[in-house]
Fold this protein.
Amino acid sequence: MMFFYLAGWYFQTRILGKEKPLQTVLFITDQCNLSCKHCSVYNHQNPTSKSYEQIKEELQYSYNLGSRFVDFEGGEPTLWRDGERNLNDLIDLAKEIGFFTSTVTTNAQRPFDWLKANSIWVSMDGIYEYHEAVRGQGTFAKLVENVHASGHKALSANMVIDANNYVNVADTLEFVKKTPAFKSIAFNFYTPAFQKKDDPLILDWKKRCEVIDYLIEQKKAGAPIMNSRSGLKKMKDLSFKKVCWMCNYILPDGTRLKECVGKTYNVCEQCGFCMAGEMRSVMNFCPDTLLAGVNLRDKN
Ligand SMILES: C[S@@+](CC[C@H](N)C(=O)[O-])C[C@H]1O[C@@H](n2cnc3c(N)ncnc32)[C@H](O)[C@@H]1O
Ligand code: SF4
Ligand code: SF4
């Protein structure tokens, strides 16, 4: 079923030139229990949490556009509630509507062994003090405890590399290799929310390219890196033609975007979201990227 849909989608987009999303990033709340240094989403003053009915409408809208994979985002999505309902009710709802898989990205500060998502991303921005420099004191130990307790069979880490923690990439990869609860790790780079000249978190471009070369080498050697080699290569030079419409976004305030919010804020030239390179590589039919995508879905 999924295979036939993907074949049809590929024909319509690649051959007929339609811009039809395959994935949706749906922000269900901007409430959060952390205040990470690199994040511009959390809202402690006046947090919003969408109603079940609003999310239902947004899922149906995305499905009607063509999307079949949904990533529930926040804020901290595991905090979401509407009356008796929790995130598992949204996962059930997405399935009922016809989405093939649901993914959740969490900061893992609370137990998430109850989550029914097909795959779970745990944000881990380095290990020990590197992670805590971004996410706050005590956050690493809690993350490790909840990751070990989760028991989920498709659990991966996600590291956002910045100007401080890039020196910790190799150790973080080693940590993932030694932690059986993690199946793999994805790497992204810090992307500024607005164009700022002297943003101290932006990693110097030369160093970014060195990190990418290192990751490509490690991937070749069999390290459990989720990014594909083709996708990583693309992130060294962002002049490629973007196909970011492959993933539509619905923000905490309900704004519906055809591409990620980075386009609205005009930061595509500083993009660190490896999805940009991965999506381009899917559209180019790069075998290693397609394989990475299949592996990701296959774990479900
Ligand atoms: C906004 S958070 C929401 C989910 C959850 N609260 C968490 O931290 O995993 C989703 C992902 O976006 C990443 N992120 C936040 N700000 C970013 C930025 N400026 N550039 C790149 N990634 C960013 C986070 O590290 C996290 O992996
Ligand atoms: S936990 Fe996630 S949403 Fe909350 S502040 Fe950190 S990156 Fe932002
Ligand atoms: S290039 Fe990067 S910042 Fe721009 S829309 Fe694509 S993913 Fe977002």
About this structure: Residues 191, 242, 244, 259-260, 262-263, 267-268, 271, 273, 275-276 surround iron/sulfur cluster (ligand 3) (CB under 6 Å). The two ends are 15 Å apart (CA to CA).
